[in-house]
Amino acid sequence: MHWGPFLLILMGQCSLFLCQRYKYYFIKEPKTWDEAQHYCRKGYKDLATVPNMTYMETLCTDFKENQANAWIGLYSISGRENRLWHWSLPGVEFHDKEMKWRASEPNDAGRDLENCARTDSSDELLDVGCSHDHTFVCYNDSNQSLHLIDTEKKWREAQSYCREHHTDLASGRAQLKEAVSKFKSSGKLPSWIGLFRDTWRWSDGSNYSYRHWESIDELPVELSKTDSGTRNCAMIALNKERKWSADDCNNRKPFFCYGDEKLILINESKNWDDALIYCRGHHGDLVSIATLEQQELVQEKAKNANTPYVWLGLRYSCALGLWFWVNDQLVCYKNWANETDTGQDNMAVAMETGREHKWFKKNDEEKFNFICSL
């Protein structure tokens, strides 16, 4: 019998099925941020990217383990040279050539790094510290209108106000020009607009500007002109507010991945041959395991089985005296329950769904749940 090509095996927990780009998975096992990134890139696509509030609301909220927080795919290497400008309104890209800065701006002239921008009456921009108080302009997407708020607030407070009462701070060159034209006669300018810069990057390389920080006083990490090279990673609080904060990337936490799940646990009990036929008919193949990392991914999926073992795509060839994966590969990585891996005809391998998740030789007519690769 020819066994089909191997599919990279990947897994996760607590999935939310979306019609949009991002499908999130909550992984309970605590890892450093780098370990979590490696895990997600092997098992899905990457650590979770959160492009806007709509996606924020889809993140999993059923945390039975009562964890405090979890990693997402946002990281920072502090230092003024690492900063990039962003528009606050998700989906509006910043293009430096479109900006009209006042002469010598942006210049970081204040005591702290100047990471936010405001307008003046001549349609020019200045960079200023985000903790200053100014009036501001909100944009409402429902009727594509601009609203001048003449109450002075810090930039982050202004952003929160606009997101709560409208859509966001005015963002993009077109909205900026319209705001100056519409409100300069009121005498209320200069005002905050939705332009800020920070050192934060998404793990998958996307340039989304959406942030949901807990602190409203300053952008995290960017507190000092001398603070350079410090590496921090973003975590989301696992509570109703789900605010973000920064932490040392070497700390261990659960985390969110995004991407398409590459494994599926079938909670039906079948013998090994029927399990193989089912996987090939409905998905890809019975799962194969070539590395310790893949073992860890499969065993997490196996924890949700309702049988004490799950079938793997590993069977014994009596003629050759060898164990083979269904992709025709030899067994390199091993996790046998005993020191010998000799087999006999009509034997296949099942992983225990608890304890150490060891591999056991079983008669292929026994019936267990099984895991398919997609």
From TrEMBL:
Q: Which PROSITE patterns match?
A: C_TYPE_LECTIN_2 (PS50041)
Cross-referenced SUPFAM superfamilies: C-type lectin-like
Q: Which UniProt keywords apply?
A: Signal
Q: Does the keyword Chaperone apply?
A: no
Q: Which Pfam families match?
A: Lectin_C (PF00059)
Q: Which Gene3D superfamilies match?
A: Mannose-Binding Protein A, subunit A
Instruction: Give the residue range of the signal peptide.
Output: 1-19
UniProt cross-references to InterPro entries, sorted A to Z: C-type_lectin-like (IPR001304), C-type_lectin-like/link_sf (IPR016186), CTDL_fold (IPR016187)
The question of whether Cell cycle is a record keyword is answered with: no
Q: In which domain of life is the source organism classified?
A: Eukaryota
Question: Domain named C-type lectin: which ranges?
Answer: 19-139, 134-258, 258-373
- Record PANTHER family: C-TYPE LECTIN DOMAIN FAMILY 20 MEMBER A-RELATED (PTHR45784), C-TYPE LECTIN DOMAIN FAMILY 4 MEMBER K-LIKE-RELATED (PTHR45784:SF3)
Record-given protein name: Putative C-type lectin domain family 20 member A
- Per the UniProt entry, what species is this protein from, by scientific name? Oreochromis niloticus (Nile tilapia)
